[in-house]
Amino acid sequence: MSASVAPIPLTSAPCGPLSGVAETPGDKSISHRALILGAMALGETRITGLLEGEDVVDTARAMRAFGAEVIDNGSGDWTVRGVGVGGFAEPEQVIDCGNSGTGVRLIMGAMATSPIAATFTGDASLNSRPMARVTDPLALFGCQTFGRAGGRLPMTLLGAQDPLPVRYTVPMPSAQVKSAVLLAGLNAPGQTVVIEREATRDHTERMLLAFGAEIAVEDNDEGRVITLTGQPELRPQTIAVPRDPSSAAFPVCAALIVPGSDVLVPGIGLNPTRAGLFDTLREMGADLTYENMRNEGGEPVADLRARFSPDMKGIVVPPERAASMIDEYPILSVVAANAQGQTMMAGVAELRVKESDRIDAMAVGLRACGVTVEEGEDWFAVEGNGAGSVAGAGVCASHLDHRIAMSFLVLGMAAKQAVSVDDGGPIATSFPSFETLMAGLGATIRRGDC
Ligand code: S3P
After folding, report:
1. Catalysed reaction per UniProt (predicted)?
2. Domain housing 101
3. Catalytic site residue 55?
4. Which of 115, 150, 269, 340 is most exposed, with the fewest beta carbons within 10 Å of its own?
């Protein structure tokens, strides 16, 4: 929820070796989808391992507002009694999606082909993010939208009375846009076709298939062509949510840069559309191994073991890998500052429209800690001077962005002097246990600035 709360400054001091087992939280992308598809199925879906971060809790509350029964059984175990495709009720109140772009965009898609109205809002970060990328394709189904200038929230959607199926090429690499169109297609008659030029995370396609939707994926000259047959009866599922690679990235990267560290991060989802960071780290020379590879609930999973890696080298991260690690560039730039030489991250324009402008937020904060960073509209490059070379002593702005806050706290663990963030509050959106988990491994994070 986006009630304004006092900022929580946090300071991370240089620490000794990190060691132990890091039990990181459930996958945020999969958690949102499990709740939304559970609400659109007819009957009882059981979910274990759900991420209970603020973003996902906001989506659970929204699904209740649309008429589903959503029950928290404790310890990540949830039940959703869904209303079926086309069964959404009109919410009585404004839907507050807090900080979550994924939540609001997927829910807009899910309601866009039902003849109901809903008004969406969020926090200052979400209300400044572009929504036209979703509302433009939803208009093709017959959905009307009334928002602030520039397609910003708060915004009211009036779902289509007589939805038409759509054929849509997603103009930017965005799983949120792709998923919004697919979820809208569920309640449109006939076939909805979504084409993406670059593959993005495919959790929606995998989960739609599991819920019994007719969905086909073909790679051809146009790109990845996804064809969904509308108005299926979705069958309720039992879903075990794997742990989030985007959250695992923080203890993994911390272990790579803090001298003497050896950390095991078990049960991490390694869907190839998400695992680009780990390939990149290994190319840089990280001592990062996959143990106990297995398949859980249709997603590849492994235990990750990360050890201090003093000889990492800067590399050029291939732009075509960007979609598979889009949320991991902030923490990669922290590792890059501790590697030897330049790390060039190109083809990352989407970073400018995340919870914050992540290129700018990282460049400014890294410079405040003594790191040389160059940037352009869709790229940034970090000059690394090797393990332990970062001066630190910066107070970095987190801009209501959980991943920016966690990245700078990891930077402080391996710097010469402590690093502060002005507000660690947003960490609760995706990784509520971050402070305690990192402290359990040996990190020193305290409230207040340096
Ligand atoms: C997400 C897609 C990505 C990612 C976000 C989660 C999803 O955003 O950055 O954190 O769950 O579909 P885009 O779709 O805007 O690329």
Report:
1. 3-phosphoshikimate + phosphoenolpyruvate = 5-O-(1-carboxyvinyl)-3-phosphoshikimate + phosphate
2. 28-234
3. no
4. 150
